[in-house]
Amino acid sequence: RGREGPKEFLKDFQGAIQADGWHVYDRFEKREGIVLLGCLAHVRRKFEEALDNDKSRAEHVLAEMQKLYAIERKTRSKDLGYDEREELKNKESKPVLKDLKAWLLENAPESNSKILPKSKIGKAISYALGMWHRIERYLEDGRYEIDNNWVENSIRPVALGRKNYLFAG
Asked: Facing residues of 37 across strands?
């Protein structure tokens, strides 16, 4: 989980990296040959955590995100090629993202005195806006995913095992 792990592991990597907002990945943003993508699932979790803080705002964002996930499901169910996926995402997801970003900017703690920066909804909105340039990048290529859940789900047994093995024997 340290800074040197990703730096060493990805030293010769060229391509797309999809990650959460962990600051260690920021260095790859400026590296030529790397596209750093955000993960909408990580952004979504912040709004789920904010439901008990500001239910109406959190529910609004979660509903907009559900629209984006519905479009992603459509691209998979139609078994589209990468170019077709990119075209559909740009046609249908781009307007949703544009409207959602405008809403986030309007409701950001800096713009709305009713939202405290340290509240859960304030933190969720700030995190989303900070990651937005990476989130939007999934529209740039039909190979890119809206989130990295499939990777996280595939490595979860390793992570859980590593934690549990500490207490084996």
From this structure: 18
Q: Which residues of 93-120 are buried (b: 16+ CB within 10 A; e: fewer)?
A: beebbeebeeebeebbbeeeeebeeeeb
Q: What is the three-class DSSP state of 17?
A: strand
Distance (Å, rounded) from C-alpha 53 to C-alpha 95?
Answer: 28
Q: For residues 23 and 25, what is the distance between their CA atoms, to the nearest angstrom?
A: 5
Task: Using alpha carbons, list the distances in angstroms from residue 99 to 21, 74, 165.
Answer: 22, 20, 46
Give the torsion through C-alpha atoms of 56, 131, 42, 141, to 10 deg.
110
Q: Sorting pLDDT into bands at 50, 70 and 90, what band is 136?
A: very high
Nearest to 137 by CA among 75, 92, 89: 89
Coil, strand or helix: which one is 31? coil
Name the band, by pLDDT with cuts 50, 70 and 90, for residue 159. Answer: low
3-state secondary structure of 165: helix
